[in-house]
Description:
Layout: H1 3-18, H2 26-29, E1 35-42, E2 46-47, H3 51-61, E3 66-69, E4 76-77, E5 82-89, H4 90-120, E6 126-129, H5 138-147, E7 151-152, E8 161-163, H6 165-171, H7 174-181, E9 191-195, H8 198-204, E10 211-215, H9 219-229, E11 234-238, H10 246-251, E12 256-258, H11 261-264, E13 271-275
Parallel strand pairs: 6-7, 6-12, 8-9, 9-10, 10-11, 11-12
Antiparallel strand pairs: 1-5, 1-13, 2-4, 3-5
Amino acid sequence: MPKLLVDQAVRTALAEDLGLAGDITTDPIIAPDAQGEATIVSRQPGVVAGLDLVEAAFKTLDPQSSVARVVDDGGKVESGGAIARVQARTRALLTGERTALNFLGRLSGIATLTPPMWRRSKARARACLHAQDDAGLTRLEKYAVRCGGGVNHRFGLYDAVLVKDNHIAAAGGLAAALERLRPRAGHMVKVEVEVDTLQQLEEALRFPINAVLLDNMDVETLKKAVTLAKGKVLTEASGGVNLETVGKIAAAGVDLISVGALTHSPRNLDSSLEWAPDR
Length: 279
């Protein structure tokens, strides 16, 4: 992740946590020059993501702090296993603990859910993260998906065209929408159209588009849609994708599966900062 993105996310989180008065628990208890050491330990097995943010949380509070990674981003950790060891001023360790663990838990939870989603598709379709991310965390969450072995959908409204049902309704039809869109879309920009029915798919395939988003179709309809679109455009399934359904959806033959569950349904990786005894 770019350092600018990491630093901005961490500073925003710390500023929210510290407010106007700072850490009113730690500061009275701990001397300013006290030094400490702790280990970040996972309480469950998972895939690690977000260590750049962990490091930035402590570096922001103590520029002399150091984080020694035991497991790199994208690596696996077992229950009870060490993820990283941190040395810093004690105040920085205690004040930055929650911010560091929040980022680590959230991103590692996404990275941990991604591999089983991929495996259950049996590699017949590429599981990708759709743009249904948390405001302000989009790029971080997409990075976590990559750490887990997945791929990304568009990052936002600016980098790919996705013509959805409301665009079509507001424009007065798909033809009108694409007619207005094409002169404005650059030659490097992909165009995808969302369809809910086979009739809508047949209409969309009459236009020069790159992909179709097959939204909330049952498996039998998906199979028919794939047959209709084969060799013409990429097919992407979306809606109702989870660990129980992703295998059947992949078996329908789609090229891509858009998985919003990677961000709206993961469980945070449970981790803790374990204080090292005085040496």
